[in-house]
Sequence to fold (471 residues):
Amino acid sequence: MKLKILCINCFESKDQIQHFSFYESPSFIDYDVLIIDPQSIAEAWTTNINVEKFSDGTIWSFSVNDAGFGNFLKQLMNRRSEETKLLLEKTGGIVLCFLRAIDEPLNLAYSNYEKESRTILHTYSWLPVKDFYYMSKPKGIRSNDIQNTLNEYHFSPQYFFLKNRVGKEIGKVTKSHPFSQYFAALKDAIYFEAVINDPKLIAVSKPIAMNKVGEIIALELPFNQGKFIFLPPFSDSVDISKVFGVLIDCVRKALQWTPPLSRPIWLKDYSLPEEEILKNKLREIEKEIQVMEQKKEGIQSQIDELELLKGLLYETGKYGLEPAVRKAFRIIGFNVLEPEDYERPYDLYIEEGDLLIIGEVEGTEKQVDVEKYRQLLDYVTEATVEGHNCKGILIGNGYNNIEPTKRQEQFTDQTIRGCESQGYCRMTTFELFKTIRFILANGQKPKLKKLLKETIINCSGEFNLDDLKLN
Fold:
């Protein structure tokens, strides 16, 4: 059975499919698959010379003098919303929407004097409406004895919000999802300009992909037998035929289009020679594949952990260098807290009995300057005044774009003098990397880790692994 595909504002160069603009398209319900790029939907009002644009940037259309323009748009959005819902729920089809940032909305009112009773239209005002229910544990309660509560989520254009976020780096992808192929085949061409950060929407959907910081950039929202898919867009440089082919493969997998969706109940009584034998073999192979996939994921996870540690040599910032530093100190044996477990803005926070270790981490193409030392000094002084026993550590990845063995002194003279005056440990991430490599190469022996841990705690100058003469 051939898929009937409708493309809205996209894939105009593909002759074998039907494509229309959002405002001129026939009814969505005549199709099995709707692929829509909402990027240009708002142009109906952002480029319209007859709407009123106020100094605060808002756009208004007043029915008293817009010749029915606002009413037309409102009715069309409602109709598209209904058509989309029918396509999903009645035919079990797929709606694939590229996730775009929401343009400036259109405010509809009767006149300039009745703005309070406005209606707002935006890029996604055509989305279908549906009530979802999901179970969750009361916030902040971890006990398994506490029963989950039933929650309701009303999905509608009125409550659909996105966070503008532009980037290209893709993080976790759900490999078992049919649309994971989109990310595998087009990874260099995909980018995102918005993320979904509504926890209720995420709770009732199936996340497909995230960016590097864990924000949702693709998900599947179930509508009975239908599926609403949000995907990040792709760049203009990629071959449009390749993109379309990949998407259709994903759609067919998601629909389980082969074999046909509807089969007679009695067909099971009409088997062919060797059919059951082949099916049993297939099931055995699928089990083997599943086991191998689990092993592969386990090994890949270990590789990812090691790759994280290699970030000590070149990464910078909160989401690049700092997680690698925390991971490294945990391997040494320190009790390292995650940032969400404490309120202070420390880059590194360690609790060792009555000793608090506060660390500042800096990755830079130049030397680590005195500002980072001053920040560490403020944090340690504040904690000391509060009555805590504190140790300060300054960790630097200076000249991070140069091969580590060829780098010059990574801390400025002022920074070095400041750390030495306070007895702070000063450490490069290269020395930290060498320390972790030495621990892993020697089987993570407890005595070795204890020695290194005590050395760092007692260090009041520069930490250098070679000074310990462990070999």
